[in-house]
Amino acid sequence: MMTRRQIVAGLAAAGGAAAQAPERPFDLLIRNGEVRDPGRGFRARADVGIREGRVAAIGPSLPAANARDVVDARGLYVTPGLVDLHTHVYFGGGSVPGIDADPVAARSGVTTWVDAGSFAHDNVAGFRRYIVDRSQVRVYGFVYLYPANRDPQADAVKYVRAAMRPTAEAVKANREMLLGVKVQIGANMNGRFSPEFLKIARELCDEHKLKLMVHVSDAPPEVPQIMEQMRAGDIITHSYTGHGTSLAEAAGKLKAGVAEARGRGVVFDLGHGLGSFNFAEARKCLDAGFPVDTISSDIYQRNIEGPVYDMPTTMSKLLYLGMSFDEVLARSTARPAKVIDRVEGMGTLQVGGPADVALLTIEDGQFQLVDSQRNAVTAKQRIACRLTICKGRRVQAPL
Fold this sequence. Notes:
Layout: H1 4-13, E1 28-37, E2 42-51, E3 54-59, E4 70-72, E5 77-80, E6 82-87, H2 101-108, E7 110-116, H3 124-132, E8 138-144, H4 156-162, H5 164-173, E9 178-185, H6 194-208, E10 211-216, H7 223-227, E11 235-237, H8 258-263, E12 267-269, H9 279-287, H10 311-320, H11 325-330, H12 334-340, E13 357-370, E14 376-390, E15 393-394
Parallel strand pairs: 1-4, 1-5, 6-7, 7-8, 8-9, 9-10, 10-11, 11-12
Antiparallel strand pairs: 1-2, 2-3, 5-13, 13-14, 14-15
Helix pairs in contact: 5-6
């Protein structure tokens, strides 16, 4: 058991020295929890004081007398708010029906959502007005490469090329909330046009210096063809799909170009979804020394009642597969926050940083977990959320 002096010394060494109790009261004080912040390599039993939407103090036995709101986190992990890099929270223009972010956030610990292409440039204003501006939590998005109302009889390539300029203009005009461009690649998504659409997306993002998120599923194109189009900072999502663009061969060896892509800075995201996470494929990649960089749910209306449910359930599947809690947590907080790169300190808990917090627990028992192909396993532990705090306030599920 660490002494009080050791805890304070550890806080200072981690770059988040315990602040003195403020003269003004805390808006919210979280007491008696175990602070876990893998983004800073910090863990200690400590209190967290919050004022004006920011972390005001971290340390043992912070005074509670004048705190406006006190949360007893005894037996819980006090972690940075979860950052879900691939979700669908927009209701409008695409074929993927989005979920309402706040009610799910309230029960799941997610304080930052990234909509992965539920809308195109023609719906950016609606995304801002009806989703971003009305949410208690932080919401960002990748804009889809082209609007959904493409005439199947028209020249598909000309249609997508015509969308390049307005797509780029939409991202550049809304950089505080839009992170880049999303495209779906695979025989089951854009069919024979997939290779050409990927080239168009690459051209667009190169010209305007934008991040590219690529959804992979059925081949063609094959994995090496996709990897050669990826640049540093781009994201491959659905990394553990059991489909034709799986990252590993049947024998378990990584396919050509995968390791090289990571070496030059490509981010590999989980993106569970209705059809894109497979336990066997995940094991192959993990055995090959290829853990995903970020864990995301790809949650939307068609999978919120299973097999996805929420971010803690998705995290629990990686815990079952052998990742430690800190490894899972880092891939659900600091690492996706680095991809977003919009709010300083997001994805960590440190004095002066944003007060985005999740109170998590690891439950012991017998829990069924199901992948996208309905393969079921029984886990001895699962991650659950007890409270979500975003911008210093408890996230409330709307009535």
